[in-house]
Every structure is written in C-alpha cells, then in structure tokens.
User: Fold this.
Amino acid sequence: MKDNVLIVEDEFDIANLIQVHLSELDINSDICCHGQQGLEQALKQNYELIMLDVMLPGTNGLDICRQIRQEKPLQAILMLTSKTSETDRILGLELGADDYMTKPFSIRELQARVRTQLRRAHALTDRSNAVETEHNINNDKRNNSSTCIGKLLVDQRYHQVTYKDNAINLTSTEFELLDFLCKNPDQVFSRAQLLDGVWGYNHSGYEHTVNSHINRLRNKLEENCAEPKIIQTVWGVGYKLNSAGVY
Assistant:
C-alpha cells in the first residue's frame, strides 16, 4: 500500500514539484493551496506525513501545526520555511513540527527527509498493530522492549513513557529522541550526532531541530526547565540524559 502525503503550499509550482518528486518514491500526495482547506483536509483524512508551508492564505502554517498537534498528537509534520525566516522555523518546531526544510531545497534532501518521516510513521504503526494483536503479552516480553532508568520508563512496544508513574505524552519524534538518549545514558551527543541518530541525516544549519525537541522534552519531564536535571546541556559539546536525575 502506498504512503499518503498532504502538501499544504500556496505556491503551486513548488507544490507540484514536490508532488512529482514524491511520485518518484511511489508516494501518493494531495495538494492544498489554502490554509483553512489544508487544515480541514489534514484533520479529515489520514496521512503518513503532512508537509506544511508557513506562509499561507487564510490560516497560517504555524496555527495549522498547532491545531493538528492538538487533534493528532502523533501526526508527522514537516514544515517548509523560507531561508531567512529563522523565527518561523523555531516557532514551528516549538509548536510541534517534527522537522523543517528551508526553501530552496535539493531534490535529494527533500526525498531523504520524507523517507525519514515515513520510516518513523511506519514504526509507530507497527508498534500500534502489535499492541492490538497481542493482548496477553507477559511481563518478560514487555521488559525486553523497554528501557528503564530510575523512575523513567520508555516502552518501545507500546510507544509509552512514564516518569514517576505518570504518563508522559510525546510526539513520535520526541519519543525517538528520548529513547535514543535513554539507550545511551550519561553519554554526551553533539547536535550533529543526534540529527544523524534520530532524524537520520546530518546537515549543518538544522541544529534548531535538536534544540527545540530538547526544549519540548524538558517541558514535559523537568520540574524546573531553567535547571534541568534529566536532560542536561554539556556546554560546547551537546546533550546527555543524566541517569542520576531520574532517581
């Protein structure tokens, strides 16, 4: 079955170009050129990925991203921004976008980013299907698919995170980032290493992607984001999951 992607882009030439290059990957795609129409389509239909321009007539891309994330927490969202709009990129990520691309972009980069998001969407679907079909999973099986550090439990099979026995709701990308850090506790990773390990690429200029997702995880896990104890910054190097901080 082919994957389905929604392209919300008001510049039809760009939208059509994206559609052509997605078809080369054997991906179906729909195009919406108006913000409100795109929002309604995104909420009504099921898509593996939504590619969302920021500047749109009607409802802008940032508001669309916020509303999609509220209604569909696990929806994969890739923002499209102009090269000079750094504020829009940061806002899009803070509002819940999984990644962003700056226009103009290369065909190879476009296809690589789409493949990464679809891989994540497929993994999430596979985990959901496993939960539905395996009603009597014993504890040993569940433990084999989980990473537990102190009071933090990351369960890959169920795509669930609990901390101090409280469920933590994460997007699929936030989950993968936390899972990656938990599998390598106390190890420091640069932004480039995290881009490669979690997002599957390493392009300079996209460090905001990592920074914003770290901030989002801290907002959901830390008691005081100004003095994080769990996900810590190692200045001049990168980030680490501090195992002592979750006990």
Q: What stands out?
A: The mean pLDDT is 88. The CA atoms of residues 120 and 172 lie 7 Å apart. The chain has two domains: 4-122, 137-246.
